[in-house]
Amino acid sequence: MCLTMEQLNSSSSSLTTPVSTANLIASIVLAICFILGVPGNIAVVVRLAGWIKEGSFTPRLMLSLAISDLLTLLSLPVWIWALLHGWVFGLVLCKLLSYLVYLSLYSGILCVVLMSVQRYMQVLHPQKWNKLGKKGKKILLSGLWILSGVISSYAPVQCTLSTNKEGHFQCKRSYQNSIERVGTLIWEIIILLVLFPTLTYFYFRLHRGVNNSAFFSSQSLTKLVTRIVACFFIFWFPLVISNIVLIIVVLLWNDRLLRSAESAGNITAALAFINSCVNPFLYAFSARAVQEHGTGTENTDVGGMRVFMNSH
Fold this sequence. Notes:
With 312 residues, the protein is mostly helical.
């Protein structure tokens, strides 16, 4: 991709420009996510790909989660550079990577939610779950990615190149007015506030349903539920709070507070990427907690970790 002379000059001058503390913190967090998350997710994808021929829905769903996490993390070096030195990669790549990030983040969240629904149905309502058949399960996975693509379609439309006060290019969302910005923030808050209770509901229904079952340990299942729900809450809820603060600041029309809120938003957005690093390990350890007290299961090793698979 060719760069304009203005972009090249901006890139050269940005190398000597001091980096804000917020951008530096966000860059460090993203770098750690990339170093830890990419190799881990690649290893999981390679191992899970070998299970697809067995026809089980569980590895297919976990593979989708690993792929979405990997797609989220692969673009991080570009965003790290942009945080430290400004955007020098052109408008097309700005829109493309923005869409890819939102697509992979939303698909990852939907994978986590679908896992909660799938485990609930498979354990407590196996007959209803089996009625889906192979075709129905493929439709679920395809629908997950299609839905992710639809709800993230606003990202490339809004993302454009702008200049900061130092004159450096930034790839960021641009809004025609405050109403559009507030509406976008509310939309993102609604998505997270709908998906998080859904995740919580099905796991706690699962916990209540198998509390007296001979096949599960109440203590282990309680830890499983706590681990999954707490992880999702810890890494995503700060983004919800950040968006709420942004809405308030936008409505107050205070430019100084807005800059501070945007800097804090960069940090909370970086925290959300951590979820893509821990997802494979989180579900492996959680699945192992269930598998140790289950029967009629198939044990498969993934990179040294035991993963629970119900044969169906």
